[in-house]
Design goal:
- With 208 residues, this protein is mainly α.
- The protein has helices at 5-19, 25-34, 40-51, 61-70, 77-87, 97-104, 110-123, 133-136, 146-149, 155-164, 178-190, 195-206, and strands at 58-60, 94-96, 130-131, 176-177.
- The strands form two sheets. The chain has a two-stranded antiparallel sheet with strand order 1-2.
- The longest helix is centred in the N-terminal third of the chain and has 15 residues, at 5-19.
- It is globular, with a radius of gyration of 18 Å.
Length: 208
């Protein structure tokens, strides 16, 4: 089940408050992404992917800085440079942006990671490592969706809209990978302090 608007609002508010007190540049960037809701870190990833013209999945400093500013994040140039140097461990002048985005995710407890894996496995009925409309038949009930009930959408259209919740923002392809699913729930998780509540929410949402 997609994260609720209430969770997103709570997380955004919490992130904005913490931004006033943190000095760590990586934490500042993480909090600015989280202040945009569950898909904040995914959105930054999309920005980086667009700029990766040669598909090398790496960025030099000028591309990195442009990506951050294009996404509308407010980061001091000195902080941006320090952050880039933190990730450019071998001093090559480039960073792997997949690795960077992994580091940017808020940490998850083992129990939460396990629940996300279980939910993904349940949805991925074909076991090919991605969720598609085909997988959702028999797992997700479209009949309760208002647009299905009034005849505006077919069952498959409801499924595609559902998949968009987890898909890369602005670039939905109707296929949700484990990374996209995991990143989505990293955002949701950041809005929920209590492991027990996260557990109940996931089990109820996916009937685990």
């Amino acid at each position: 089940m997609a994260g609720t608007a209430r969770h997103d609002n709570q997380m955004a508010e919490k992130a904005r408050k913490l931004l006033d007190t943190t000095q760590d540049p990586v934490e500042k960037l993480r909090l600015q992404c989280l202040s945009r809701g569950s898909s904040g870190i995914k959105g930054l990833g999309r920005c980086f992917r667009i700029m990766d013209d040669d598909k090398s999945r790496s960025l030099d400093y000028s591309e990195f800085k442009k990506g951050i500013y294009d996404y509308g994040l407010d980061l001091d140039p000195d902080d941006a440079r320090k952050m880039f140097e933190t990730f450019d461990r071998d001093g090559s002048g480039t960073i792997d942006f997949d690795e960077f985005l992994v580091k940017l995710r808020p940490p998850l407890s083992k129990s939460r990671r396990t629940l996300i894996q279980k939910a993904f496995r349940k949805l991925d009925r074909t076991g090919d490592g991605q969720i598609t409309v085909e997988d959702l038949h028999g797992v997700y009930d479209a009949r309760h969706h208002p647009k299905y009930q009034n005849g505006d959408w077919t069952e498959d259209q409801v499924f595609l809209k559902f998949l968009e919740s987890f898909d890369t923002p602005g670039d939905p392809d109707g296929v949700v990978t484990y990374e996209e699913f995991y990143n989505y729930y990293v955002g949701v998780s950041a809005s929920i302090d209590n492991d027990i509540y996260f557990d109940v929410m996931m089990r109820k949402a996916w009937k685990l």
